[in-house]
Amino acid sequence: MRFRDIKEHIVNREGIESIDALRQAGYRLVKARDSDRHFLARPDDLQPLLVRLGDIASIKYGVKTGADGWFHVKILEKHGEYAIIESGDGSRHEIESRFLIPIIRSLKDCPFYSTGFSSPERYLVYIDLNLDELKLYKAFSYVEHGQKVSYPSRTGGGIPALRPSCAQRGKEWYRLNLPDIGSIKGFMYKIRRDKHVVPQNSSGAVGDDALYEIHTQDETVIPILNSTVSSLLLEQTGRVPGGGSGPIAIMVAEAKTLLLPNPAAFTAAQRDRLLDAFEQMAQREVRSIFEELGYPEPNRDYSNIDPAALTLEQVQCASPDRFELDAVVFEVLGLNDAERLAVYRAVVELVRNRLVKARSV
Which residues, 6 or more positions from 338, have their beta carbon under 8 angstroms from its beta carbon? Predict the structure, then answer.
């Protein structure tokens, strides 16, 4: 569309009849990212390429029970509506399966890019009933067991206002407040070493307080956070304890400021391609970022990990699903092949350097 055609379109739509009036109405000439075409647009119509995670999603601490030994259980056997569980003290009980929710506590609990392909080691006992209602269920005997071993009087340690405990919950010490479980779309680990993953929550799980829950209604947020661009941005956002070496940590306040490619900048076709690529990626186990990008297993001093030797073909061969997911993100950001390769090499260099430094400390 030519400039004159655009002007006439706006004149017909809004009754603006001159260039000066266009400027006064807030329109300006904008160049397309992927071509030499120009458009008239208002600033409010333009989407930033990067946004803060906290602006498009809610980042919350995982569940703080105050008594993980009672709330975190193993399922030993299921039969119909009931399950035989093993409590933290080794005792076994029969309760209704409806009171058990998968809980993700670490990367060990979810070695895939999606919780739906993992078998959780632990479940959370989640009973949203008062004592009178609960007496009709087998789970009531498990609550009685908890009372006998003094869980209701446990304070949980630390500052009471910051550490919810059984004692604070009074008679209904077993009853956790877990709002918006259905909006938990993924989990972010506080600590990571060489595996960059934000697991998609496709199994209705909750997280414990060793990680953060990502609450959002946008289904593209988690796939975008698993892109290599997001890995690079996280490496630059997180902090490395112990003098700048070893695992990288990200606190909840930092997670909220983490930049990521803006989901609103994706076209409908790009969103579909992104989701299709992540669907394939979600079904396999997470590997170290080095393996993801086609490197061999690192030796002790990481001398066989050379960022400068990396090629796009190497990445595509090692992880075709990641390569396709990244391609969509790169396309939205307007990066050419040289810039895409620079992103991959930068991630490898940042991760390698902090791990090498950890070896020397």
Answer: none
Domain spans of the chain, in order of start: 3-46, 64-172, 181-360
| First vs last C-alpha separation in the chain | 61
Those residues with Cβ within 8 angstroms of residue 85's Cβ, 6 or more apart along the chain or in another chain: 73, 74, 75, 76, 92, 93, 94, 95, 100, 123, 125, 142
Tell me how far apart the alpha carbons of residues 323 and 312 are, in angstroms, rounded to a whole number.
9
Q: pLDDT tens, 327-338?
A: 999 999 999 999
**Helices assigned H by DSSP within 282-319:** 289-292, 312-318
pLDDT digits (tens, 9 = 90+) for 190-200: 998 999 999 99
Alpha-carbon span 234 to 55, nearest angstrom: 16
Task: Report whether 149 contacts 197 (CB < 8 A).
Answer: no
Dist. CA 145–CA 219, nearest whole Å: 41
Structure token pair of residue 139: 């789970």
Between helix 268-281 and helix 320-333 the angle, nearest 10°, is 150
Nearest to 305 by CA among 349, 244, 247: 349
Please tell me the predicted confidence (pLDDT) of residue 35: 62
Chain segment 29-81, per-residue pLDDT in tens: 666 655 666 666 665 556 789 999 999 999 999 999 989 999 999 999 999 99
Cα separation, 72 vs 21, whole angstroms = 65
